[in-house]
Amino acid sequence: MVNFSLDAGAVICWLKGEAGAGRVAEVVANPANVIRIHIVNLIEVRYHYLRRGREALAEVNLLIADWALEIDREISEPMAAMAAEIKANFAPVSLADTIAVAHAATTGAVLLTTDRGEMEKLTRICQIEFLR
User: Fold this and answer.
1) Which pTM does this prediction carry?
2) Under a CB-based contact definition with an 8 Å cutoff, are residues 116 and 99 in contact?
């Protein structure tokens, strides 16, 4: 069993069939894998599609429901402390990216992302697999 965490970019990449989508599909299709996303990153996905209209958002919500993602809705004190450290020590980095990295690190997950620009400097904090 491998524990994976998706950030918003990984989910959007998959939904749009962009470069890297095949790897996300492979990870999600393997029943031995645990696939997680933090609610903060899911908010980013929903925001991305809501800008395109409520119909697009409704379609995405149905797809996400079918994926059997474990949606983590809590931010523990260790995760909050780690996210603050990342934000303070690796700026510029978005709050959502700090949450994605802290989430992966505290759950022992491999983070799947398309965001090489901000995330490359964070590879010593958790295992990150870049989709492109």
Assistant:
1) 0.92
2) no
